[in-house]
Amino acid sequence: MKEKIPRQPMPEQPPAERVRNFKEVPLGYSDETARLEASRCLQCKRPTCVDGCPVRIDIPGFIKAIRDGDFLESIRVIKLTNSLPAVCGRVCPQEEQCEQLCVLTKKGESVAIGKLERFAADYEREREQLEIRASAERKNGRVAVLGSGPAGLTAAGELAKLGYRVTVFEAFHSAGGVLVYGIPEFRLPKAIVQYEVDALAKLQELDEVEYAIDLKMNYGAGEWFTYAFSPVLQSFGGDLIDRETYMTAEGFLNGPEAVAAMTWLQGLFEKGYAIVSPPDDYEFENGKAALGWIGHWMATPYYEAFGDDMVILPMPDFGAGAVTGMGSWAWSISSQCDNPEAAWTYLEFALQPEEILAITNENGAVPGRSSALGLTDLFGEGGRLSIFAQQLEGGVAFPRPVTPGYPAITTAFYTAMDNIIKGADVQTELDAAVDKIDQDIADNDGYPVK
Length: 450
What we know:
The chain is mainly alpha-helical. It has helices spanning 15-18, 31-38, 48-51, 59-67, 71-79, 85-91, 113-126, 150-161, 178-181, 190-204, 223-236, 256-270, 299-306, 340-350, 353-363, 370-373, 386-393, 406-421, 426-443; strands at 142-146, 165-169, 213-214, 291-292, 324-325, 397-398. The strands form three sheets. A two-stranded parallel ribbon has the order 1-2. A two-stranded parallel sheet has the order 3-4.
């Protein structure tokens, strides 16, 4: 009678050693132990373990390759459906998924599927045998993935393998999301995550790619900078000014959150994801940029150019909540108006829902009244610009500072940003902007209401 092989434990750091370091506790299988554990697999004709795998890895297939000693073939099988095998082999809850459905659990312990996946991934990494497989056919489309957590990295890897050119955007210093910032080193070493990220970068480099995002720098330093990029500042937790008192920008425009936001934006240019001086207004339409960072006025031209291939993406959440720019211009009648009655008559006419829609249909502007919003197919439920209405109603759209001092605020901000994207010190530029804003407030006695 053949002797039953028990489940093979994975060696670990002794407790006396691991209390003195933050290194990974499990040490991994040796080649011999991995093959012995793989030999326990029954190679079921109807493998129920695969049903428990969220990405449906060919589990019997990669385990058979390990059993046969073909370790690189094993990782090839895994990577057909899983872009992050070294990560999943460590932190995926196999005991509640694939291993729970292993046939061997009916009379004993399951095959150590997770440990074998880790072994295959580590074998490839430690021997520098990384193999990149992508579609021979390059797709015309470009894809931007916002966030480099496990979902973002997986999406990027799968799309790149299909032949798409992919750019991954990450707000923090390192890619990986929760894999880097949420799981301790002894559970998932950062070097493992970086290896998986680097593998995706190599996949991306298989074909020459143009820069990632057209930030419309051709518009020049001006109100566009404030409208387009102050939402990044606010989503990081900073702001242009203290919104409660409107008496100072100190600590809001130059605090650590604001510095982080502007450092991230500066990094887009330093890393070549964006360029300071695009040649014209058509970088996105001409396929040179994967993304176009732009306002509603370009929605209609872009749809005319791309049709159903056009996708509008919301701003990413950089930690303090998603924020997007709001038009927030206001019609008003000044005290010096010679004929305020006539001015009011015009405004009453211009603000009728039908007149608002005439403007909306021409340039894609978000209707300024909710009564008009409900009359347009563009912004209504299912409309191609409905995301704008959702952001307005959901509080994502953020108004400009409501103060007569706004011209000084925006001038100080866009001047600072213009210098920052060209390489100036972030903290220095933001401090200078704060000084200009606070000086303007002081010169105007705090803009008192009279």
